[in-house]
Amino acid sequence: MKTSTKSLLIGIVVVVLAVLVASWIVNIALAALAAILKFALVAGVALVLIVIVWVWWSRSKARD
Q: Which has the closest alpha carbon to 34: 23, 45, 42?
């Protein structure tokens, strides 16, 4: 096998491996981002519910 052909094959293999590793890293990052966004959404909804209950509780206590 010629040196240039061998170098070309090694280059192709390196590029394919780099693309696979980059794809893997991006998938992990997107999964983490989705989990963070889901947690933030749940925390935001919980905070809104806490505020609603707190306002309702203070108004009902003010009437008594």
A: 42
Query: Whole-prediction pTM value?
Result: 0.61
Q: Is pLDDT of 37 > 90? A: yes
pLDDT of 64 higher than 80: no
- Our measurement of the distance from residue 31's CA atom to the centroid of its chain's CA atoms, rounded to an integer in Å, reads 4
Largest Cα separation within the chain, whole Å, is 93
* Sequence-ordered alpha helix ranges (H) in 1-64: 3-63
> 54, exposed or middle or buried, with CB in 10 Å at 0-12, 13-18, 19+?
exposed
CA distances from 19 to 12, 45, 49 (A): 11, 39, 45
Per cent of the chain over pLDDT 90 is 80
